[in-house]
Amino acid sequence: MKAGRVLVVGAGFAGAVCARELADGGCNVTVLEQRDHIGGNAHDRLDDHGVRIHPYGPHIFHTNAQRVVDWLSRFTEWRPYEHRVLASIEGKLLPIPVNRTTINRLYGLSLDESGVEQFLNSVREARDPIRTSEDVVLAGVGRDLCDKFFRNYTRKQWGLDLSQLSAAVAARIPVRTNDDDRYFTDRFQAMPQPGYTPMFERMLDHPRIKVRTRAAYRPGEGDFAHVVYTGPIDAFFDHCFGKLPYRSLRFEHEHLGSEQFQTVGTVNYPNDFDFTRITEFKHLTGQAHAATSIVREYPQDQGDPYYPIPRPENESLYQRYKELAQQRHDVTFVGRLAQYRYYNMDQVVAASLTAAGRLLGRSDE
Question: Residue 3: its pLDDT value, please?
Fold first, then answer.
């Protein structure tokens, strides 16, 4: 498809990246977004007090993919930012992922790196085969650290025990024997300097792109050569095999008169309260402001779909929808909801660049 009229459903990362690539490739693109704003869950804005917040929870950009950095850098300047997270455990705020500082402060020890490795080896539980997230965590840090940091947090986040989740969930969480307290270790860690929304505005600012917000997608609407669909794949097919399970979130935003609320961007609360974590946005954005704004996150079953729930039976159900999708040569399905995958933002960008490249017939995709 070298040119033509294309409908893109959704103005988050997947939709915006595809729209821009297709427009640059000569297509006339209409973007439909059911919300009243662009940017999807990465949308940010100034709150009533002038503090830049992420209404749908914190979005921290990090990647090892230079192609993704180069592409996004066309639309934004960057502010270097390395995210740090503390966990509230037994009255202490301890680094997460677990590192040497975590173990020494939690247990009153003074171990060096080799001592931490020996300690971990002494508490790890052999699990073979590794099938669940519980297997991953017990094999990585043993039962006490598992119960203090991971088990209850997982129950809150997913509504399931570690033993009920696929291994891939916990496999994302490293364990360190040194004092590196960065949440991510990717080569590129930064935030869009003016914010995510200005970046999306630049992305969609193209004479061949028309954006319609508050616009629901109706199959068969308009005369389009192709549809790029970024919404829930089960909804596209009218849930004909049943609904795919998603975890949702409720956000409790609060503005505070103090200049700073906590010492790092995010503090996790695995064992206390109904919320999972508190994020203070000024750490992320670097904004100078006399006061501050925070958000508490409450996971729940009902509401907008945020996280595909990684369990084998859900993957099997998704595969049935994927088979239907593969039969639709007039529709491309891309993004976290359309592919039922826990994508990071950079992974969504990479997948969208590849999808758009294939539609444009580029041989390097």
Answer: 62
| Alpha-helical runs (H) found in the chain | 13-24, 66-72, 100-107, 113-123, 133-145, 152-158, 167-171, 196-203, 233-236, 281-285, 312-326, 345-359
d(CA 22, CA 32): 15
Please indicate, yes or no, whether residues 253 and 362 belong to a single structural domain of this protein.
no
Please state the rounded mean pLDDT for residues 178-188: 97
Residues 239 and 317 in one domain: yes
Closest CA to 70 of 334, 359, 346: 346
Task: At 14, list the tokens.
Answer: 């997947």
| pLDDT of 1 over the 60 cut | no
Measured distance CA(74)–CA(92) in Å, rounded: 43
Q: What is the structure's pLDDT at 2?
A: 55
Task: Looking at the structure, tell me whether residues 119 and 212 fall in a common domain.
Answer: no
User: How many residues are there in the chain?
Assistant: 365
- 194, 321 in Cβ contact below 8 A? no
Contacts of 342 (CB under 8 A, 6+ apart): 168, 169, 307, 308, 310, 336
Say if strands 78-80 and 188-192 run parallel, antiparallel, or are unpaired: antiparallel
Residue 351 belongs to domain spanning:
1-38+204-243+310-365
Model confidence, pTM = 0.94
